[in-house]
Design a protein that fits this description.
heterodimer, A: mainly alpha, Helix Hairpins, elongated, B: mainly alpha, two-stranded antiparallel ribbon, 19 helices, 2 strands, 79% helix, globular
């Protein structure tokens, strides 16, 4: 059992981080903390995907043709590069919205925002 | 048109860039540029549809690299019909918007509106024809950012709050989708849908928990974005606080493309045999049954016309998921047909509601009573859309609900068909009172004889006509959807 757990340490670590991020996002009232939670959640997924490409003792995937064995898998890293770009733009947009909300309502607390938008 | 599949994605993005660039100098150019781009998109989609129905699915290898190394897009019948829907729908919505939105948004916000709408159109088009799961994720993200953008574009506090909530929940959905994609990649080694679909039976046998987890995450991820019942919390605020044309885009088109993505993953990647060995369809069944009743019951209590329409979307998305979760060709065809039909009627309703709100300045149902006397055509179109929502025979809503109910009978479950009928009756309970008060209610002094300008009236009337036309002659979308459903169940 412990052997099996250690073999999937990357997976378990990612799941724990994902849960931490999701929990932060859904339970914290502060918008900035929600955005931080969103980033932790995204990072969990990115770490998991990048770890999929890892080959123990593998070399960088640059070099001679015909020797496919022994290289780390470059595809997950390439995908996550795109994933990071998307996460950055989502974060930027979320922060921009948070600034606009603060300008308009003078608060970043989710419950307070709901109260102020409903009242006027 | 050999590059049609690439053009339907690239053209809206290019249009978005040009409209954004020209918007600061000549706003009229940006307005009509957006309408024109959508019209060309619709034309390409129609030509793709005619090609695909004649010659079968069209696979396009981007950059000339075939799968599994390259990223392919594939236009099959489902993709082509939905692309046509997106193109034609966006053209009509933008035609309405170019006359309606300048007043609603103001000059500063309007500049950003047209590029955002076109980006959304490009993202949606990419989503429905993506054959690569990572590409699907990227397109879903483009859609969600652009969709949040068109909600909050005019910076009203309510819209900002709704947009923030939507963005965050949609990020949870995207996280789930990406994690699911990574899990599938870890057990199959592919991102291409066809290749995964071939490798999945073996992978599901050796790693049952990983594949099951991936399916669950896809259901949650796309379910969140498509507002499947307990995950719908963002929708009523987002769809009612947005500008009118945005509401039509979001409620009519955006939620639909995620359903198409989920249907593809369920039926084309997993395939019916593997799918029904997992609990996913049963979970979806109960969620969607909940949606049909919850959406309708809450809608009855609404006083704001746009909130009413938003809750009605939750109920109608329930029908779509309900049909997809029944293992019957007729039910799945009915659900996919409802994707098309609900888009037509919901866009018609939201545009009509937008026109009424713009003329009277009132959003509450009581304030709009007697509106039929000053806006007879708009009210007539709204009435047709409402009757189609209820599923009155002679409207398109009847055909799709009929097929979902037929699928339930095929399975030997008449009780499921009763559920569909009962929920339809409930939707009558919130649409009919408004329609009746619009015709016979007291007139609180609406401005007389003030229909919207022709550019706003035309899309509403055309959509209402389509509701009736495809109600009497359902052949165009129906035969395609039956064919798609048949191909879903013929796999493996």
């Amino acid at each position: 059992m412990s052997q099996q757990l250690l073999g999937h340490l990357n997976f378990l670590g990612a799941m724990v981080l994902f849960a931490v991020g999701l929990y932060t996002m859904l339970t914290h009232g502060n918008l900035i903390k929600k955005i931080i939670g969103m980033n932790i959640m995204d990072t969990a997924v990115f770490l998991f995907v990048v770890s999929l490409g890892y080959v123990r003792g593998g070399r960088p995937p640059i070099g001679a043709a015909g020797t496919a064995a022994g290289f780390v898998n470059p595809l997950p890293s390439a995908l996550i590069l795109t994933g990071i770009v998307i996460a950055v733009s989502t974060t930027a947009f979320a922060l921009a919205l948070a600034i606009k909300i603060h300008e308009n309502l003078g608060t970043l607390d989710a419950d307070e925002i709901v109260r102020r938008t409903r009242s006027g | 048109m050999a590059h049609g599949p690439a053009l339907v994605i690239a053209l809206p993005f290019l249009g978005a860039f040009v409209c954004g660039w020209m918007g600061s100098r000549r706003i009229g150019f940006a307005r009509w540029g957006a309408v024109g781009t959508a019209a060309i998109h619709a034309f390409i989609a129609l030509s793709l549809l005619s090609r695909v129905t004649r010659n079968g699915p069209l696979t396009y290898a981007t950059g000339g690299w075939p799968a599994p190394l390259g990223i392919e897009v594939r236009v099959d019948i489902l993709g082509a019909v939905v692309l046509t829907l997106l193109g034609c729908g966006a053209t009509l919505i933008l035609l309405f918007a170019q006359s309606h939105e300048p007043a609603e948004l103001g000059r500063q916000a309007e500049r950003w509106y047209w590029p955002l709408c076109l980006t959304l159109l490009g993202g949606m088009s990419g989503l429905v024809i993506a054959k690569d799961l990572f590409n699907l994720f990227v397109m879903a993200e483009i859609c969600s950012i652009a969709a949040c953008g068109i909600i909050s574009v005019d910076s009203r506090p309510a819209a900002l709050e709704a947009s923030f909530k939507y963005l965050l929940l949609s990020a949870v959905g995207s996280g789930a989708v990406l994690l699911a994609t990574a899990m599938l990649y870890s057990v199959t080694g592919y991102l291409d849908m066809d290749a995964i679909s071939r490798a999945l039976p073996a992978a599901a046998a050796s790693f049952p928990r990983v594949t099951m987890g991936a399916l669950a995450l896809y259901l949650v991820g796309f379910g969140l974005k498509a507002a499947l019942f307990p995950l719908h919390v963002w929708l009523p605020d987002a769809h009612s606080a947005a500008p009118s044309a945005s509401s039509a885009l979001l409620s009519g088109l955006v939620v639909k493309v995620y359903v198409v993505a989920l249907a593809r993953i369920g039926y084309q990647v997993w395939g019916p045999d593997l799918l029904w060995r997992s609990p996913a369809p049963y979970v979806m069944f109960w969620f969607s049954a909940g949606a049909m009743f919850f959406g309708s019951i809450v809608a009855i209590a609404q006083r704001d016309i746009k909130r009413l329409l938003a809750y009605s979307t939750i109920a109608q998305m329930g029908y779509i998921f309900f049909g997809l979760s029944l293992r019957s060709e007729n039910a799945v065809a009915g659900a996919l047909l409802h994707v098309f039909n609900h888009a037509v009627m919901k866009v018609c309703l939201f545009l009509a509601a937008g026109a009424m709100i713009a003329r009277t300045g009132k959003r509450d149902l009581a304030g709009l009573s007697g509106i039929a006397r000053s806006m007879p055509l708009t009210t007539a179109a709204f009435t047709i859309g409402a009757l189609a929502m209820i599923g009155v025979p002679g409207t398109n809503g009847f055909i799709s609900k009929w097929y979902v109910a037929l699928g339930a009978l095929d399975l030997g479950r008449p009780l499921y068909a009763v559920l569909v009928v009962a929920s339809s009756l409930l939707s009558g309970a919130y649409y009919l009172p408004f329609v009746i008060s619009a015709y016979f209610g007291p007139d609180p002094g609406h401005p007389r004889g003030r229909e919207g300008p022709p550019a706003e009236l035309a899309p509403i009337v055309i959509l209402a006509a389509v509701c009736v036309l495809t109600g009497f002659l359902p052949r165009f979308p129906l035969q395609h959807m039956l064919e798609v459903a048949k191909s879903f169940f013929a796999l493996r």
